[in-house]
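User: Could you write out the 3D structure of this protein bound to manganese (II) ion? I've included everything you need below.
Assistant: Certainly. Input first, then the structure.
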Amino acid sequence: MIYLASDFHLGMPEGEPSKQREIKICRWLDEISKDATQIFLLGDIFDFWFEYKTVVPKGGVRFLGKLAELNDKGIVIYVCVGNHDLWIGDYLIKECGIKIFREPKIITSGNKKIYLHHGDGLGPGDKKYKFLKKMFLSPINQWLFSRIHPNIGVRFARYWSKSSRKKTPNREKEYLGDKKEHLTQYCNEILNTQEIDFFIFGHRHLQLDIILKNGVSRYINLGQWFTGSRYVKIDNGNLGVMEYSPT
Ligand SMILES: [Mn+2]
């Protein structure tokens, strides 16, 4: 059984709300671990993450421990790096045994082809972000950032993450239509050259299940776990969109 979820944004807001969300995520992971063979977390698992050579940000201990535990049980856990945690390095790989991917990944289940990514920087537009992403991923810039004391660097990054969210408070609320949504446009573009049954993304923070232009393929957006708890379960090509409600 394959399970997918996205956009936990652990660490935001700091303190209790994030901790409660972390506990809920761990319970969900426990629940699905009963029959999961693979788990895909499609990005922004942390609201901010940076690995200094010998230091990682505080927080997320239960969650990281749970990933390590499930990995030890033999469940394969993949994390697609999102725009909020694009500085994930090899700490999670070494400590928790997870597999990281940054480019879109196509998997198969039964006879279905499934296209996975966080969703940032795909499709037309968003030029400013695409430029920023290049800057953020430049090794020299990462090296420079790592020279700043973590107390200052991490605080600055959290502040920036918070203020960038404030600038676009309404962007997440509604679907803008097939012609305006970058990810829908992107899926339809991909369908011109490839046969894909399901596209699954996060990033948009809006739960979506859209039939694409060929009339059969679907674009599913996993939404976010601030207020939602959507996940997808795939069993031999059969896809179910579910909501986790702890019992
Ligand atoms: Mn996000």
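Residues 7, 44, 82, 84, 203, 205 surround manganese (II) ion (CB under 6 Å).
User: Perfect, thank you.
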